[in-house]
Structure formats: C-alpha cells, structure tokens
Amino acid sequence: MTSRRKLWLGSIVLYALFFSWYTDFGGPLTETEIQAYIAKTENRDLGGDPSARGALLEFLRNDTGGQFLMFNAVDLAKNPPPMEGAPPDADGQTLIDLYMEHMIPELLSRASHPVVVGKSVADSLDLLGIEGADAWSDGAIMRYRSRRTLVDIISNPEFYARHYFKLAGLEKTIAYPIEPRIYLGDLRLLLGLFMLAITALLDARLAHREAR
Questions:
Q1: Residues 135, 81 share a domain
Q2: Domain extent at residue 99
Q3: Distance of alpha carbon 194 from its chain centroid, rounded?
Q4: Are residues 157 and 128 part of one domain?
C-alpha cells in the first residue's frame, strides 16, 4: 500500500471512530429504558415546576434517537442561601460552578458539550406572553448526543447531590430542547471538513515528492 493510500485510510478510520463515538446508534429510548429511569429517580426531585417531570417523561417517550440542543436562559441568584459544601459567602456563579464541576465531565465523556456560553448584554429585546422574563444574566446552549445520554446523566445519584447547588444559584431559568434542522456547528461536519482539508494538503505534498 502506498503512503498516499495509507494517509487517506488513516484519516477515514480516525474520522469513523470519532463519528461512531459522537453519534448514538441505539435508536429511540425503549419503554423498558424509560421505566428503569423512573424506578431510579421516583424519589428524586429535579426542583422547579412540578410539571417539569411530566414534560421530561413526554420528551423521553417522543424520542427520535438523534442529538438535541438544550437552550438555557439563566438569571443568577443575587443573594443565594448558604449551602452545605459551598463557601459561606458563595454567590450564584460559585454555586453554578460547583454544579458544573460534576456536569462537564459527565457531558464530555458522553460526547455532549457546551455549544455557546455567554453573559447577557441587554434585557430581552423581544418578549411576548411571558411575565418576569425581561432580564437574564446568562445564556447557554448544550449539545446532547441523545436523550439516552440525558437519562444516563440524570439517573446518577451524584447528579442530585450537585443539583441542589444549581437550584440555589438561580433566581429563575428556562430550559427547553430542540432537534436542529440546520446545525453548522456540528463537530462531525467541522471535523470532517478539517480532516479532509489536512489530508488533501498532505496528499498533495506526497504527490509532489513522488513526481520529482
């Protein structure tokens, strides 16, 4: 096998490995998986509106098997209560950081990650039919490999041990999922284009050497 063929084969294998890790091929969640999640978390409290658990179960039962993005609008608590395990003077951001210390490794190990994270630079510019949603301190978009990945994360008892930091650190929040129809930031696309460009460049250099 020539060096050029080895180069292309190596790139294809590496990309295929990444693609297979980054993509959930397990299909939609089964009712058995959903019932197992319910059994593990029936005495756990996610906090927030009581209807959220019902909405979550409906979200799981309508699974398509694909990735989704979670949009988060966040308003940090200005005077959060003292929390066991947190510094005595912890502000809202500190409490959220304690929560994310658990979440970031859990996300990354399952091919899930932040897409956008930032501070608000103005009050809501377009607001209709929602009360108390004119001001937010932060916003974030998280990519999840699948709803199965979400279930894996929130079935872990350690998640609930840290989730209290999140609840205490927030004044208010809205989080809702979407399945993207257009997603130019998909790492499968970006990495594929990058590897194609690098491989083509190296192949051109090898071809030039062979021609001399």
A1: yes
A2: 29-62+66-180
A3: 22
A4: yes
Give all strands of the β-sheet with 170-178 in edge-to-edge order.
113-119, 138-144, 68-76, 170-178
pLDDT tens digits, 107-131:
999 999 999 999 999 999 999 999 9
pLDDT tens by residue, 163-206: 999 999 999 999 999 999 999 999 999 999 999 999 999 999 99
Q: How far is CA 127 from CA 122, 124, 133, in A?
A: 13, 6, 8
The span from the CA of 87 to the CA of 91, in Å, is 9
Contact 80, 90 (CB under 8 A): yes
- CATH number for the domain including 103? 3.30.70.100
Residue 146 has pLDDT above 80, yes or no: yes
Q: Is 163 left (phi over 0), alpha (psi -120 to 50) or beta?
A: alpha
Pair of tokens at residue 161? 């041990």
Q: Would you say 161 and 98 are in contact if contact means Cβ atoms under 8 Å apart?
A: no
Distance from C-alpha of 15 to C-alpha of 8, rounded to nearest angstrom: 11
The answer on 190 and 150 residing in a single domain is no
Q: How many domains does the chain have?
A: 2
**Rounded distance between C-alpha atoms, residue 52 and residue 43, angstroms:** 15
The pLDDT, as a whole number, for residue 1 is 76
Residues 171 and 140 in one domain: yes
Kindly give, in sequence order, each residue whose CB lies less than 8 Å from that of residue 159, ignoring residues fewer than 6 positions away: 102, 103, 106, 153
Compute the distance between CA of residue 118 and CA of residue 73 in angstroms, rounded to an integer. 10
